[in-house]
Amino acid sequence: MSQNEKSRPFLDWRSGVISVQEAIEKKEGPAKIRGWVYRERKSNKRAFIVVRDSTNIIQCLVEREDVPEDVWNAVEKIHIETSLVVEGTLKADERAPTGVELAVKNLEIVGPCDIFPITKDQSPEFLLDNRHLWLRSRRMTSILKIRSTVTGAIHEFFRKRGYHEFTPPIFTPNACEGGATLFEVKYFDDKVYLTQSWQLYAEAAVFALEKIYDVAPTFRAERSKTSRHLAEFWMAEMEAAWMELDEVVQVAKDEVEFIVQEVLRKNRAELELLGRDISKLEKIKQPFPTITYSEALKILKEKEGMEVPWGKDLRTIEEDRLMKHFETPVVVTNYPKETMAFYKPKDPKDPKTALCFDMLAPEGYGEIIGGSQRSTDIEELKEGLEKEGENPEHYEWYLDLRRYGSVPHSGYGLGVERVVAWICGLDNIKDAIPFPRTMLRKSP
Ligand code: 4AD
Ligand code: MG
């Protein structure tokens, strides 16, 4: 230890620190902060060190002649992402990136840092390869804060309405959304699948708890390389007994409106940092239109000159062209029964169609919710399963739910990353989740 190092008080990062945001709000007087070097620029005489923590960034100025020699020695060892604790005096300064500057008196390196591999203008693939480091970017930090608001809002929305959180198994013996996208897992000497949806288990639980929800990991072996599909994503699902299609659609609209309002209330700074057009989100107020699949085809034909034969599912391109005509989410009901999952019942008023719905987001973000009333007719369910190539015998436990006091019930699933991508205005869903999993990406 040199004499200089002993000549100043050791800076303890455990006590007396305030967050960067608190320092910015304080504007003047003494402050101690801790964080990571976001940017740095040094000359022989002074150094500008921009420090970030989870809350914001602040410029710190070190004047060589104002600090002990060992502080200056430490400054010379600083690189981007060095972690440190800094003490000094705050003052407002318009030239500083967040309007306040900390004149440094003392500084301690907590974790030294090699040259950080991420510099400006790197390719999306490079950033994905280095996701463990790129998470620290202001962009990813902002997205993750918004994601946290979104999932928090979902819990709050349902709990306020008397829903119980219900957790499903993740290993399952059955398909819910068709065999093609199942992930098979070795299970002792047998095999199971990773869950595609909590739904079948939720249908068992509503006859106990009546109103339930969850936010849980969901898996689909999607072979499509789109900007909307992940192999592992989080679905927020709800299921309620004594509920029919019109009522469950209203719950979905209320939920999405609430989520967007919560993000607007809590995350304006993050939306601005992402360059999101906030005025578009401010328009996300009910009423949200509800149209039928047939009406959607009519709009596509009349306004877009697109002929979609009745019975074909809407693809991304059709959804996008349809949504050009709306500024709020739109609910589309009554898709053709033929193309729908086995549990979606015929609409007695229009038996070619099912009592089901999707919610489409504006601005080309496509389907954010899929849901339906559930068939309570054992024969219809068995027929649907056979059509999907499933053996109804493997679903006996599920069919039991129709044998013992079944009631009308409905539910839906909201894709958390789809909603985050839309709210944040992201080009690709991969940025809506911390460590994306797709057909071509399973690390870091
Ligand atoms: O429309 P889906 O397939 O519906 C179900 O799974 C129902 N069993 C849900 C229910 O009724 N409880 O999926 C629901 C939502 C979609 O609207 C979409 O937002 C999201 O989950 N989703 C995906 N998100 C990211 N990557 C994928 N591969 C997704 N597949 C579905
Ligand atoms: Mg769907």
Describe it:
There is one protein chain. The chain is α+β, with helices and mostly antiparallel strands and 444 residues long. The protein folds into two domains: 3-111, Nucleic acid-binding proteins (OB fold (Dihydrolipoamide Acetyltransferase, E2P), Beta Barrel); 127-432, 2-Layer Sandwich (BirA Bifunctional Protein, domain 2), CATH 3.30.930.10. Helices cover 32% and strands 26% of the residues. The protein has 15 helices and 18 strands. Strands 6-10-11-18-17-16-13-12 form an eight-stranded mixed beta sheet. Strand 4 and strand 5 (100-111) form a beta hairpin. It is elongated and about 85 Å long. Bound molecules: 4-amino-1,4-dioxobutan-2-aminium adenosine-5'-monophosphate (4AD) and magnesium ion. Residues 176-177, 197, 199, 220, 222, 229-230, 233, 235, 237, 367-371, 411-413, 415, 417-418 line the site of 4-amino-1,4-dioxobutan-2-aminium adenosine-5'-monophosphate (4AD).
Summarize the structure.
The protein has 15 helices and 18 strands.
What's the arrangement of secondary structure elements?
Blueprint: H1 3-6, H2 20-26, E1 29-42, E2 46-52, E3 57-63, H3 69-76, E4 83-92, E5 100-111, H4 124-129, H5 131-134, H6 138-160, E6 164-165, E7 171-172, E8 184-187, E9 190-194, H7 199-209, E10 211-219, E11 232-241, H8 245-266, H9 268-273, H10 278-282, E12 290-292, H11 293-304, H12 316-323, E13 330-333, E14 346-347, E15 350-354, E16 356-361, E17 366-373, H13 378-387, H14 396-403, E18 409-415, H15 416-424
Helix pairs in contact: 6-8, 6-15
